[in-house]
């Protein structure tokens, strides 16, 4: 899912969380957080490119699935629940619910719309493959992604 899609999806997320928790600031922060989760693509891009080559190159490289290393630290179903429990203790229930729900919401959209196998969005699965696109492809996690047509 592209950033604009995540941004549009964040609007109903904010409304639902604000209505459910009554904490509109937490809901707003959660909506922004749900979009900014994709910043975890930056380290993979910088490692692969050997540095920063601009925002346009960053988006195009990721859209074309060219990066050969897929750490994607925040893209793991393992994280929202323990993070939510930690946030519950640290910030309280409304903030914890909003932020953990936003994280899971982002992963759900990515899982539904990105052409990857279900196991791809488990950090442990990518770690077992050494975060290597080639090894993830060989394991079947990227079969749909790497067979998808790429724009010229």
Properties at a glance:
152 residues; 0% strand; mainly alpha; disordered C terminus
Unreliable stretches (pLDDT < 50, length at least 5) are: 147-152
The average pLDDT value, as a whole number, equals 89
What order do the helices and strands follow? HHHHHHHHH
Give the strand tally.
0
Structural shape: globular
How many independent structural domains?
1
Indicate the percent of residues in helices.
Answer: 55-70%
Instruction: Specify the number of helices.
Output: 9
Measured by DSSP, the beta-strand proportion falls in: under 5%
Distance between the termini: 19 Å
Q: Helix- and strand-based class?
A: mainly alpha
Rg to the nearest angstrom? 16 Å
Largest sheet: none
Brief sketch in words of this structure:
With 152 residues, this protein is mainly alpha-helical. The protein has 9 helices and no strands.
What does this molecule look like?
The chain is mainly α and about 150 residues long. The chain has one domain (about 5-145). Helices cover about 65% and strands about 0% of the residues. The protein contains nine helices and no strands. α1 (about 5-20) runs antiparallel to α2 (about 25-35), α2 runs parallel beside α6 (about 95-115) and α5 packs antiparallel against α6 (about 95-115). The protein is globular. The two termini are about 20 Å apart. Residues about 145-150 have low confidence and may be disordered.
